[in-house]
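Reviewer comment 2.1 asked that we show a complete input and output for one of the modelled complexes. We chose the pyridoxal-5'-phosphate case, as it is the one discussed in the main text.
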Amino acid sequence: MKDHEHYPLIPIERGEGVWLYDFDGNRYIDAISSWWVNLFGHANPTINAALSEQAGRLEHVIFAGFSHEPAIQLAERLVAITPEGLERVFFGDSGSSAIEIALKMSFHYWKNSGKSGKTEFVNLANSYHGETFGALAVGDVPLFKQTYEPLLMKCRTVASPDCFFREEGESWESHSRQQFEHMRTELEQHHETICAVVVEPLIQCAGNMRMYHPVYLTKLRELCTQLEVHLIADEIAVGFGRTGTMFGCEQAGVSPDFLCVAKGLTGGYLPLSAVLTSDQVYQAFYDDYSTLRAFLHSHSFTGNPLACAVANATLELFESENTIENNRMLAQVMSESFSHLNDHRQVAEVRQTGMMLAAEMVVDKKTRQPYPWQERRGLKVYLHGLKNECLLRPLGNVVYLVPPYVITPDQIEHLAKIATAGIELATK
Ligand SMILES: *Cc1c(COP(=O)(O)O)cnc(C)c1O
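Response of the prediction step:
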């Protein structure tokens, strides 16, 4: 809050497509999709229509003993578009709640299956899974976690497949394969007490947009199956086309035991999340009331009809706009307009997976020595962006693009120009 003595908050009056308009006649391209939630632009006419239509019909209803059309449709749609074997849907109201649900359900599944010795979770270094206690506990970004560490459940943290630290000349695939050996050791030693491994497929987004090769997920799926450990895929940020495919898991050809989605699920309109799981997991809870095997977890706004209606409209847009296909062209434009930064003396690398691209500023290109965080280099890029119609909001020293899918090639090129000038200023 104290920062805002120098950089006043920017109240936004309205949005349209990629643009945000403030009250002083300025506008900004939302290059980060308002924290990765927006997919088809602000005030999208199709989604607006679905929302107002639903508001006129039913705004909310208790989701216990009662149901409604938007939720049923959405559950069916999600089952149809997610990897094979995910047949049951549990709604939550945020990404963090989806993670809590998956963690609880995994533990509870093993308990109901006579394996109550399974009480631990494995995560990756530098991962992020949300802000509530369980989600924070399975995350590993010190900035968010460290303060609360004494309050959090312990977690087994394994080295990340993150390819930023690969040897010079080494491929992403070879590095991620090699890093998998840490996971193998951990799981082989401790699988009897482990409920699940939780990962962000392909991109550790809040962990500075670090990326890895799909082979890691393929191998992780094999090992989890072999050792009877669940795989929880947190696609809250990377789901719905961000990695170039509808879900990141597709690129590894795997189905997780639990798939968590949120953020883009409603096109960035309303809070809603979902956890998808298998019928086998569902059946472990399905029993007479008196056995007390049920999964007792609910939120007041579970399955909210307005949120489900905009989610349905969002998923329809993927089909009518042929989004995944068209995004290939946009991803190519992103790649071409940012590639020159690879030669910048203070940029370690430009990395990209589908519609997510990041340029990492460093003191030394060779050693990859980071700028001290206290220098807040990213803030300089942010401020330069604001003066030039761009909302770029770097993560530390990492300048990145996660644009709405309605962005045009010209707008991407403008973002590249302003990001480059911002990096130039910030690294002077
Ligand atoms: C944003 C995010 C979450 C948390 O979602 P919220 O809706 O903010 O609670 C969890 N996991 C990942 C990978 C995220 O990016």
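Residues 94-96, 99, 128-130, 200, 205-206, 234, 236-237, 262-263 surround pyridoxal-5'-phosphate (CB under 6 Å). We note this here for comparison with the apo prediction described in Section 3.2.
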